[in-house]
Amino acid sequence: MNDFLTVKDIQMIYQTPAEETMAVKNVSFSAEKGQFVSIVGPSGCGKSTILSCMAGLRQQQAGQIYLEGRQIQHSRDRIGYMLQSDNLMPWRSVWRNVTLGLEIKKKLDDENCSYAQQLLEKYDLWQFKDSFPSQLSGGMRQRVALIRTLALKPEVLLLDEAFSALDYQTRVKVSCDVYEILRRENKTIVMVTHDIPEAVSMSDRVIILSKRPAVVQKVVDIQLGAREDNPVKRRTHPNFQNYFNSIWRELMYDEKGGIIS
User: Is the pLDDT of residue 165 over 80?
Assistant: First the structure.
């Protein structure tokens, strides 16, 4: 298959009056259409910076990002971005939160509203359309935030620690819900996470970054049964622990065998 999304030699430098800090150095990776890719690495290594460049929130100093061979700045409407917080507006109902992006982009027409309704119905949230965020569980709020993003019909979805604000049990449940939704909608996903089991259980490929300045240390292709198996079932696969151990070792030890501080 041809690469659908390509990140090529991205470089990002943060500048202050006192110094320059190289955050990301010549990072390259790719994803096929419909593929789920996770990025893991030490805290502060530049994982979220890469997503910000992909979303157009930051401009890298060097390198390019391509979607189907075109530079991504010409395809911003094809990119969706979901942050750690659900960022639901507390004074707006579920329906008005879901349609917020459409309203901002002046796309609140009958066709797009019908699609948003279909998503809420398909994923068991339509009955809560008149509820407010304070009346929802954390998992439901995260699903509403996801549907708000999907209502804009992105082809690529960027997830930046999207489940980290949830308690462990809810996090695993929501990751299964989100995984099912994204597989069914055939989206291409790039997810940043600190949670290795989450990365292994949800992904087709895991990109391991080094400490800052970040480079791609290793790429691990994940094969855990059928792609339609949910993350909980994938965690029971005999090879799950092997993938976990391999990624853990890459994150813990440098090339000389010393523990990374």
Answer: no
